[in-house]
Every structure is written in structure tokens, then in C-alpha cells.
Amino acid sequence: MAIYIALLRGINVGGKNMIKMAELKKMCEALGLNRVQTYIQSGNVLFESTEEESTLRKIIENEIEAVFGFSVNVIIRTSEELKKIVADNPFSEEEVAAAEASSVGECLYVSLLQEEPSSEGIEKLRVYQSDNEEFRINGREVFLLFGHSVRNSKLANNLHKLNVPATVRNWKTINKLVTLASAMEESR
Question: Residue 152's pLDDT is what?
Fold first, then answer.
């Protein structure tokens, strides 16, 4: 069985698309997913399954709509893929430290995409890159570095130009999910 992390897009934001994590966990367990656990209210679910990513995504998306009455995009990664995201961070320690020194709040984020973006989508996004807002793409991940803040960021607000379903997590959350997934692996 593989350990997966399902990342839900746009739940529990501004009082919309509200899902309690206990209810989400219960729903996932009812789907037959094993060792289900959630992490923070933004919709991160760790579990074990023998199913393929695309099958799991469809099942979870359909069940959320049936149980909670609204649709959300679900992005799925294996624990190994999340570890690779952390290992492959394209921004140097110096670049991150410089952004942290001037940023209000978190400065490093990852947009996790359902599929790799097209070159046309990347070019549309490149227009919004600046000295204070940079991105680098590695496969299905867009690494984002903000020198000021993600709030009101033109780059962050235009990620949809990639025309690929996605969800964004800050670097601390990505690392915490790796830690939780590693603990699941160790406790097998």
C-alpha cells in the first residue's frame, strides 16, 4: 500500500466550503482508505491505499460533492513525491533567506498541480514574475518565492493562467506533511 496525501483546494476559506476535519476523516474512512489522518483546516489528508492517484482523486472529489454539497479540486501526491518536492526546492538557502528578511509572513510556497502545465500557460504566468515575486516549475510543482507577501501578489493571483487544477501550500505545511507521512511509513 502506498501512502498518499490528498490536498483539497479552497476549503474553509473566508467561511466558504466549510468542512470539519473530523467529518473529512470519517468520509475518507467510509471510502475504504486506511490509516486516515488530517492536518490543519486547509484540507490535508494522509492515508494508505492500493488505488491509483487518478482513481483516488475522482473518488474523493465525487464523495466530497455528495457528502458536503460542493465540488473542490483534489490534488494527490505520494509520500515519496512530497519528499522529492522538499529535496528538489530550486531556490537556494540564500534566496530564501533574503526573501524571509523582507517578507511579511511566509515567503516560500508550492503550488501543486494535477498535471504539468503547458509552455503557453507558463509564458502567461511569466508576465507576473518580478524581483519580489519569483516562480520556478519542476514537473507538477510551481515553487513560489515572495519577497514581500503572498497577500495581494500578482503572481499568486494569476496561477490560474497555467490552466491546470492546483492548490497552494506554504513550505512549513509541505515539510510537516513529509514528517507525518514519514511517521506513517515508520509505524508500518
Answer: 87
